[in-house]
Backbone:
């Protein structure tokens, strides 16, 4: 197998993934996730869209300064000011890339850009040349490429490569393509773009028709050598191509898709959990590869087969994606060493100070809950490590409720480092807690959705609550877990409020709202 057979994995969880409704992440969360993605082995990491806000630029710059092996890129429209900001963000990366894009379909040209084809080629060439004056590694994307005229695509790619693009990307921006057609377009570009040999052909698919993975695989079989993906398939609207699906399809069906990647598959599951915990976006149980049921065998005949030989019904081994076979259960007698080993096996690298914090929280939980399992530890790690920059923190919650009393909550919070306390009533215990928290934080968010589930089985399982909040047009998710369901609800609400505060202080410029 030659180098030609290696597929570059370009992860855009932190950019396109972050465009999922409510999935905003703060800089500390992004940095943590970027570190995990480097460990997973992604080749290129799109860390954000630096023109969107100073916060985004800053987060991309922090990631660029930290990663050692992974190429770090920032997205830019074809304007010089966007490219300046993208370069400012990635200039200190060990391997910087600038990714610039403009739409190429007639419908975008006529209604959105109000430019003709020649003008768009000129703009693309100017942008690539300008980006090239900063760095060698330049990607050019033809937005809405799958709905663009094929000959025009070849023309603009040829011009972009001539101007210095080292990767040209064909996005199925609106998730319209179907596999055979998309593969044909890839072949057409490879056959009709004279200088395509000087660049890598990339694809970037969206999942509006549920075909993102199929389209990406078809494109790779047709000769594309970079796949743009996100963890858990999160992204704009119905999402992007899932990294785990594409990588495991190539891994499992290597006879049919004979290519390799640099992904360490055993880090797939921890990375998927981390993305879900950070963004608050729940992975559907039947999701391919990383869903909770992906390796669960319910039918008796299947269970019997699995016991006789796992290959009867299992096409992938759970260990391959980092789902440990030996589920170690910890309890209140477990020591630091056992905890550290388990957390390491789960894919988290913690500093000594972080481990100290986690150990304290683990002991608190073990006092309330006999068996502490991986799902519990994940929550402790996420809540203990990732939420340290929170403005609002829960110190104390006491709720009285029952069928003969008016539900009342008494709450103590830290608000910007200052302790505040108060009490309030509600229709039920959660309503009472939320009313009191809203009063103490001075916030006026609207609760759009409230869901509650259990992290594991058993009556001592931790309750897991997800909320969706809206305030002044900003929407976000919040997540919390605790053996006590009212406390879990309060934690989820506070997590959502903290995310709203972050959004308020980091206003985003929508790319589509600004003239190119
Ligand atoms: O979907 C899309 O077209 C994009 C481009 C900016 C690559 O995200
Ligand atoms: Zn996209």
Residues:
């Amino acid at each position: 197998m030659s180098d030609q057979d290696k597929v570059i994995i370009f992860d855009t969880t932190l950019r396109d993934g972050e465009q999922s409704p409510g999935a905003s992440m703060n800089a500390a969360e992004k940095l943590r996730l970027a570190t995990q993605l480097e460990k997973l082995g992604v080749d290129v990491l799109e860390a954000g869209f630096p023109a969107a806000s100073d916060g985004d630029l800053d987060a991309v710059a922090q990631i660029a300064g930290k990663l050692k092996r992974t190429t770090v890129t920032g997205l830019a429209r074809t304007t010089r000011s966007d490219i300046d900001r993208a370069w400012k963000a990635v200039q200190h990366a060990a391997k910087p890339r600038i990714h610039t894009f403009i739409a190429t379909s007639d419908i975008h040209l006529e209604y959105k850009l109000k430019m003709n084809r020649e003008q768009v080629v000129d703009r693309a060439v100017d942008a690539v040349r300008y980006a090239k004056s900063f760095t060698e590694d330049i990607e050019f994307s033809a937005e809405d490429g799958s709905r663009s005229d094929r000959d025009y695509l070849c023309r603009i790619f040829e011009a972009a490569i001539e101007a210095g693009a080292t990767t040209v990307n064909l996005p199925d921006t609106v998730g319209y393509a179907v596999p055979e057609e998309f593969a044909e377009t890839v072949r057409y570009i490879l056959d009709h773009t004279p200088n395509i040999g000087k660049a890598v052909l990339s694809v970037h698919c969206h999942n509006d028709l549920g075909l993102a993975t199929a389209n990406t695989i078809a494109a790779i079989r047709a000769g594309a050598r970079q796949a743009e993906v996100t963890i858990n398939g999160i992204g704009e609207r119905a999402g992007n191509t899932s990294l785990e699906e594409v990588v495991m399809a190539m891994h499992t069906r290597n006879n049919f898709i004979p290519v390799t990647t640099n992904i360490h598959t055993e880090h797939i599951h921890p990375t998927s959990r981390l993305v879900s915990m950070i963004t608050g976006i729940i992975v559907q149980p039947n999701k391919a590869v990383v869903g909770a049921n992906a390796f669960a065998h319910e039918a008796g005949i299947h269970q019997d087969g699995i016991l006789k030989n796992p290959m009867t019904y299992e096409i992938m081994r759970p260990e391959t994606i980092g789902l440990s076979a030996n589920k170690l259960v910890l309890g209140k007698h477990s020591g630091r060493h056992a905890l550290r080993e388990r957390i390491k096996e789960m894919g988290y690298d913690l500093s000594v100070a972080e481990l100290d914090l986690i150990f304290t929280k683990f002991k608190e939980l073990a006092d309330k809950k006999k068996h502490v399992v991986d799902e519990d530890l994940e929550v402790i790690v996420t809540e203990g490590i990732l939420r340290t920059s929170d403005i609002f923190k829960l110190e104390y919650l006491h709720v009285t409720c029952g069928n003969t009393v008016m539900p009342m909550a008494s709450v103590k919070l830290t608000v910007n480092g200052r302790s505040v306390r108060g009490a309030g009533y509600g229709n039920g215990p959660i309503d009472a807690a939320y009313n009191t928290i809203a009063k103490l934080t001075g916030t006026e968010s609207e609760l759009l959705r409230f869901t509650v589930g259990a992290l594991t089985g058993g009556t001592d399982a931790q309750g897991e609550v997800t909320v969706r909040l809206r305030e002044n047009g900003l929407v976000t998710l919040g997540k919390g877990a605790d053996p006590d369901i009212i406390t879990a609800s309060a934690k989820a609400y506070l997590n959502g409020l903290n995310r709203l505060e972050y959004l308020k202080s980091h206003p985003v410029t929508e790319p589509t709202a600004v003239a190119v």
About this structure: Residues 324 and 345 are 8 Å apart (CA to CA). The first helix runs from residue 27 to 40.
